[in-house]
Structure formats: C-alpha cells, structure tokens
Design brief:
Structural class: alpha/beta
Strand content: 15-25%
CATH superfamily of the largest domain: Enolase-like C-terminal domain
Shape: globular
Helix content: 25-40%
Largest sheet: 10 strands, mixed
Number of domains: 2
Number of strands: 18
Length: about 400
C-alpha cells in the first residue's frame, strides 16, 4: 500500500480551517486538521510545498517512521507551523489505519479507559450578572464542568467574552484588533466573580478559569491564593510558560490546581513543568503538538508525574481535531478533562462527525478511524478570509500578552 495523492482544503464556515486529505492507492483516505489560528496559510504552504511531495509513495501504515522522518528529517525542528503540519499528517495516517483495521482509533491506541470524555463549556458575560446567568444555562444543558470568564469594569473588552451564548471566535477579519488590558483591575474583580458563582450554584460543579498568560508569576500566585476558597478545578495559563521555572513561584504560594500548554508544540515545552510537578494538567493539543503520536508521548511522561491531560478544544480546532481528541480522551489513562467549544451549524455540516455531547460527556460509537469526514462540496462554499487574533496593550500602550 502506498500514498498516491495528498492535498489540502482551506475553508471558512464561520472561521478558517485547513484540512489535509491523504489518499492511498487502494482508495482508502484519511483526513487531518492543519489549522493554526491566524497563521492558517503558513501551515497550508508548508504542507503543499515541503511535506506532501515527501509523502507520495510511502506506506501510510508506517506512522512512526513517517513522523520521525518529518520531525528529525527536516533539521529545523518544532515550532507551531512545523508541528501543526506534522499533526495533520499524523491524524490522517491514524484515520487510514483505523479504517484499514475496521476499528476506531481509540481501540488501536489500546482500547477504552472510560465510557465518555468529560468536557467543559464556556460561560461568559460582560459583567458578573451575565456570567452567573450563563453558568446556569450550562448547568441546565448538563455540563459537569464550566469555565467562567467575565468582563472587567473599566475595560471595554476582556478575554473570553464572546459575541454569542455558545460560540466564541476571537479572531478578527482583516487586521488585528487592539484591546486595552489592566491586570490590577482583573485581579480585584475575578475572586468576587467566583464567590458569587459558588453562592448561586454551590460546589457540585467543577469551575475553571483562564488567565490567558496575562499575569506575572507573583500576580498569578496571588490570584491562585485568592481563589482557593472557591475550589477551582484549575487556573489555566496563569503566566507565560516560556520560563517553565516561573511556575515554581506560583506553586509555592497556592494550592489552586494549575493548567498550561495549549500553545505548546512539543514535550520539550513542558518537560520541566511536568517532571518537577509544577502543573496539574497539561493542555497540549493534538493539532499543535505533533499529532496523536507525539501527544501520546507527552501524556505518558505526564502520567509518571501524576499530571493529567486537559487538552485545548476551542473552535480554532476543526471537528477533525475534536474527533481525534475524543478518541485520545477515551483511551488515555491519565485523562483529566477536555475543552469543548461548540462549532457553528455550517462547520458541523462541512465536517460530519460521530462524536456527540451527552450529559456533560463526549461519546462516540465504534466507527472505523477518527469518526469524522470532510464534505468538500460544502467546504467550497466558504472561501478563506484572512483573520488575526487580537493584540493586547496596557493602558500606557505597552504591548502585552493577549
């Protein structure tokens, strides 16, 4: 068996997605997500110009060899563009192997470790009142875990506050928006938000919060300490993790669980964090961390240090990545939780899939491969639209972490 043909499909049913399709000489095909929010065409060009020509004629069943070839053989390793491209190939190859075996990918990985994958949704509002109401709606929908974000008084915009109840797309069409940020205001505002949520709904549901890399380590330590009475499931991305040692300072001041890693591209980005047990959840995702093959290595390494998975799952991942994440989550022994942001109806039509939300969990049938497909006819209806994530500035104009 050989790879006969491979190509990418770029579509924008509400937001941009890049999908790789690999076809074998026996007619079996697999698809992989190659989306990098705000830099989609960079990955698309990397695949078309540098990766796809090297795939033709190779045996698609040799997933490990192809992964090593694309990673070690390129010399210039890692980085979000390279690892997203490798991930797309890897997903597509696992999809093919599952179809050849007549088994879902989670069975090829070793079988189910659980019946369903617990997911969390995003409750947000322009102020405390709206956010608290949104939490109630997610509880009514059956969610066991809910991320809570609120606008900050005195700021026109705040991370996580979307334009609709269920859908959140921060990328702006055209050039990037610029938003003003004020960390001291945020630090005063956030603990009170969670006090009100606990007063309203009690402690039966898991609550999560995302700092989105905006705090210094000592600021994050203060917030983690202030949130301790409200028993958060985790505080996510409290500070930029390029300096992994920074999390040691946070850890020394708070028992609030810490999660980080949605922008990581390899095990090396989180090695110290994991082996020194400075985090509780690793959020690296299949599409940006080299695919199922590499995320499995990260998860296995994390398991040795009692760190669990909590993979990124925003709408900048297509349903192809979500299908892969559900397969991965059904198998991985040290599973923690899976982020789940609902895609638009148009996106779901372009990417028909088997996974489904049931009472707080994601479930899927025993279908071969990843359990997702691409309708290329419908995809062609939605041409690419250039979009960027926003840029944050402090009140004095200093560029900050968005």
């Amino acid at each position: 068996m050989q790879i006969k043909h491979a190509y990418t499909v770029v579509t924008s049913p509400g937001r941009n997605f890049v999908t790789l399709k690999i076809v074998t000489d026996e007619g079996v095909y697999g698809i992989g997500d190659a989306t990098l929010n705000g830099r989609e065409l960079a990955v698309n060009a990397y695949l078309e110009e540098h990766v796809i020509p090297c795939l033709i004629g190779r045996d698609p069943r040799n997933i490990e060899d192809i992964w090593q070839y694309l990673y070690r053989g390129a010399y210039w390793r890692r980085g979000p563009v390279t690892m997203t491209a490798i991930a797309a190939v890897d997903m597509a190859l696992w999809d093919i192997k599952g179809k050849l075996a007549g088994m879902p990918v989670h069975q090829l990985l070793g079988g189910r470790s659980r019946d369903g994958v617990m997911v969390y949704g995003h409750a947000n509002g322009r102020d405390h009142g709206e956010a608290i109401e949104a939490v109630g709606r997610y509880i009514e929908m059956g969610y066991k875990a809910i991320r809570v974000q609120s606008g900050v008084p005195g700021l026109d915009k705040a991370y996580g506050v979307g334009k609709g109840d269920l859908y959140y797309e921060p990328a702006d069409k055209g050039l990037p928006d610029e938003e003003v940020w004020d960390t001291p205001l945020y630090l005063r505002h956030t603990p009170e938000l969670f006090r009100k949520v606990r007063d309203a709904y009690g402690y039966d549901h898991h609550l999560l919060h995302d700092g989105h890399h905006r705090m210094t380590p000592i600021e994050a330590a203060r917030l983690g300490r202030d949130l301790e009475p409200f028993r958060l499931f985790w505080l996510e991305d409290a500070t930029p993790a390029e300096n992994q040692e920074a999390f040691r300072l946070i850890r020394s001041h708070t028992t609030t669980p810490l999660a980080v890693g949605e922008i990581f591209s390899s095990l090396w980005d989180c090695k110290d964090l994991i082996q020194n047990q400075l985090i509780d959840y690793i959020r690296a995702t299949i599409v940006h961390a080299g695919g199922i093959t590499h995320l499995r290595r990260i998860a296995d390494f994390a398991a040795l240090h009692q760190v669990r998975t909590g993979c990124h799952g925003a709408t900048d991942l297509s349903p192809v990545s979500m299908a892969a994440a559900v397969n991965f989550g059904l198998w991985v022994p040290n599973f923690g939780i899976q982020e789940y942001m609902r895609h638009t109806e148009a996106t779901d039509e372009v990417f028909p899939h088997n996974y489904r939300f049931v009472n707080g969990f994601m479930e899927m049938d025993e279908v071969p491969g990843l359990g997702v497909d691409l309708d290329e006819t419908k995809a062609a209806r939605y041409p690419y639209q250039r979009a960027y994530l926003p840029v944050a500035r402090l009140r004095d104009g200093t560029v900050w972490n968005w």
